[in-house]
Design a protein that fits this description.
- The structure is a single chain.
- This protein has 298 residues and is α+β, with helices and mostly antiparallel strands.
- The protein has two domains: 78 residues; 210 residues, no CATH class.
- Helix content is 21%, strand content 34%.
- The strands form three sheets. Strands 5, 6, 7, 8 and 10 form a five-stranded antiparallel sheet that branches. It has a five-stranded mixed sheet with strand order 9-14-13-12-11, with no helix packed on it.
- Helix 1 runs antiparallel to helix 2.
- The radius of gyration is 22 Å and the shape is globular.
- The protein starts with a helix and ends in a 26-residue tail after the last strand.
Length: 298
């Protein structure tokens, strides 16, 4: 009888939790619909000043939405102008987007939301300072961000070393070239660090991030390849051998290079053949499944 009474008392509590969860989802859906409308207004804006004003409203509304309890679990997948990607270990997610200006350049915006379960919002704003970063190889933080729209996160850990994350992003650039970037993100206690000397290969000593620039009329592959167990990318070269460092003449030459995770480093692999499955006995093969869940807790 006592057990029966317990279940009778338990049912209203469960129903209440379900109702609260439904209310939270409904609230976030309403926020998402509002953000979609604001985003459309930003695209329709006729001047940079108008775009910045509308984008400011977008940022404020998005932050209010993220303050909703359990917002980390809401995908915002109807909001097409924003890239929302979670780290494979579910420790955080990155929201990033851009505004294209009248002169053909881009201003990037973003935030990193930590997974605090049902706790208060923990959000790191990402402040694009590209135009004020004289050295694209500089190690920076979230207040001096080398802006990009990220689309993939690759976690890396090695032994007891603090984990870091490889971010793949599209950076845009100008009316004549685009950029893509391999960014390195790590956490130093409560601080974000962008960039680290983890690249290993010819002419890569001291490299803290990889920036690729190429002609706007071309496309560039930069992605993870699960079969090869590495990050692969087009090898870029000038269309004219006599023209160097004028990136409006750069594009893929039809070959691929890549980075394989070996001992916590990104080891450069050149002239890849991507048709074959990786050989697990290859000394350079690093199983990506072993790099999915860093042991560091935030």
């Amino acid at each position: 009888m006592k057990l029966f009474k317990f279940y009778i008392l338990l049912i209203p509590g469960l129903l209440c939790l379900k109702l609260n969860a439904q209310q939270v989802v409904h609230k976030l859906v309403v926020f998402q619909d509002t953000l979609i409308k604001i985003s459309a207004n930003a695209v329709a804006a006729q001047s940079d000043d108008q775009k910045m004003e509308v984008n400011g409203k977008f940022v404020k509304t998005l932050v209010e939405a993220l303050k909703t309890p359990n917002s980390f679990s809401f995908a915002f997948d109807s909001l097409k102008n924003i890239s929302v990607i979670k780290s494979p270990d579910q420790a955080f997610r990155i929201l990033s987007w851009y505004v294209q200006l009248e002169n053909g350049t881009y201003r990037f915006y973003g935030a990193i939301q930590m997974n605090t379960k049902s706790g208060p919002l923990k959000l790191y704003p990402l402040i694009d300072q590209t135009e004020n970063i004289s050295d694209p190889n500089a190690i920076t933080n979230n207040q001096k961000w080398f802006g990009a729209r990220y689309y993939e996160i690759v976690p890396v850990t090695s032994g007891n070393r603090l984990p870091y994350y490889v971010l793949l992003g599209w950076k845009g650039n100008s009316q004549i070239t685009n950029k893509k970037v391999i960014e390195i993100l790590s956490f130093d206690k409560e601080n974000l660090v962008f960039g680290a000397p983890v690249f290993d290969g010819k002419e890569l000593k001291g490299k803290n991030r990889m920036v690729f620039e190429y002609a706007k009329s071309n496309a560039m592959t930069l992605k993870t390849d699960q079969k090869a167990g590495m990050i692969v990318f087009d090898h870029l070269t000038s269309f004219d051998p006599e023209i160097k460092d004028k990136f409006e003449y750069y594009g893929s030459d039809g070959t691929f290079d890549g980075f394989k995770i070996i001992g916590g480093k990104l080891k450069l692999q050149e002239d890849l053949t991507l048709n074959n499955d990786p050989n697990a006995s290859d000394e350079l093969y690093a199983d990506p499944k072993k790099n999915v869940k860093p042991i560091r807790k935030f």
